[in-house]
Amino acid sequence: MNINSTIVSKPPVATEKDLRRCKVIEGLLVQLLGVLPTEIGDSIRPITIGFFQRVSTLLKPDASVTTLRRAIGAYVHSKRYYLGCSQADAMRHGLDGNPVEPVSDLIDSPLPGIGGIKQKRFDPCVSPREIS
Q1: Residue 39 is part of which domain span?
Q2: Number of neighbours of residue 73 by Cβ within 10 angstroms
Q3: Is the pLDDT reported for residue 78 higher than 70?
Q4: Are 106 and 97 in contact (CB under 8 A)?
Q5: pLDDT band at residue 89 under the 50/70/90 scheme
Q6: What's the total number of domains in the chain?
Q7: Which residues pair with 93 in a beta bridge?
Q8: How many CA atoms within 13 Å lie on the side-chain side of 58?
Q9: Pairwise CA distance, residues 11 & 25, whole Å
């Protein structure tokens, strides 16, 4: 690699698999969401904290809350969604797709039963010895 070159990180884009996950979510709702990708190549945008609570009010009468929770879980636990959240300038987006707040460097612990513990966002360029 040339010493003068810089690495520019591009936001991840939706694939057919991501679109299938989004269609399942939107199929359970009474209205479409602007934050979810609709075409292959659309960017994957981090969603706001409390997304499920906001979206569950839009649930169709015959749809299950559990099904909605699982569909959202499948979307937000994908590799491309995680990559979208890990971008240096990542912003969380509201239901309409507009940016709301930056993704924090401190995130809730993903480990069950350890709520409230904060950890730094994973940085593959920092060795574990530099952190402690």
Answers
A1: 16-103
A2: 12
A3: yes
A4: no
A5: confident
A6: 1
A7: 47, 99
A8: 17
A9: 22
